[in-house]
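Long-time lurker. I teach an intro course on protein structure, and each term I like to show students one example going from raw sequence to a predicted 3D structure in token notation. This year I'd like something fresh instead of my usual example. Would anyone be willing to generate the tokens for the chain below so I can use it in lecture? Attribution to the forum is fine with me.
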Amino acid sequence: SVVPPPRANYAVLQDCDLSFFERLIGKNNVRTDDIDSFNIDFLKAYKGSSKCVLFPTSSEEVSAILRHCYSRNLAVVPQSGNTGLVGGSVPVYDEIVLSLKKLNKNFEFDPHAGVMKCEAGWILEELYNRLAPEGYIIPWDLGSRGSCLIGGNISTGVGGVRRLRFGSLHNHVIGLQVVLADEHGTVVNFGSNVRKDNTNLHIHHLFIGGEGQLGVVTGVTVCVVPKAVSVQVAMLGVNTYSECREVLRLAKQYLGEVLSAFELMDSEAMRCLLENEKLHNVLTSNPPFNLLIEVMGSDEGHDKEKMENFLNAALAKGLAVDGVLVGVSECC
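-- Reply from a regular --
Happy to contribute to a lecture. Here you go:
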């Protein structure tokens, strides 16, 4: 088990603090009962003992909360969807939990520029649903899409399953609104709504992956990407890890710009998946390594042909012992 560091010399939450928070954001947004889910991480590996969860509804309220906590020397842990797997969003001791779940009102989208601006408390899947009618998607995707918040995505610097295609968050996040944990609870707007902005320092990149150390992300401006017309998915069975790397090189060569995902699962991971999810393995063999390869494009026939050529090349070179094109689906 992980031994936490000694509790720092922070103040202990008092009734006067709770009264201040209730006056500031309302009693309904200050919770002291039934807060176990905010103290325990997704894997139930880490548990804190926070006595209070706050639900601000605006960046101004976040600012006032942090200003008060600074003056009282109260420790705070920002929390988004609490879907992380490393315990980063739960208290170590009795820190106040600052939940961003109610920062989910403002949403703007410019379909001509492909730029989305929203608050940090939006659930990722809700944003996907908002963008879908406009023909766009967010350039990262996660298994926790239905419960993770975009502010948490930014603060943890998520990669997602399509990083191979779209790159990191740094490529797409062009602006942030952040509340600093200083004596003023300063609200700062970094970046702009312009895709190509080479003015000033791009300070907002410091907050991507910062996990709240420098400030709390309350607003996000993102360049989104056009939704693909078709998606082709293939599964390959491979004997060795070195051959998996060769298959990746071959995929980049044959699939080029339409290659969107390349996921590796060893036989044990596949066994657990099949047993627990009651799925059917599309491969007839039981190889040491399984590769899931996805392409996203605008021409179904062209994309399918590229995928078939790639599969034939991988099998002909002896890099794969089994392979199948498992289907075509609508993107996202």
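Some talking points for your students: Residues 300-316 form the longest helix (17 residues). The longest strand covers residues 230-238.
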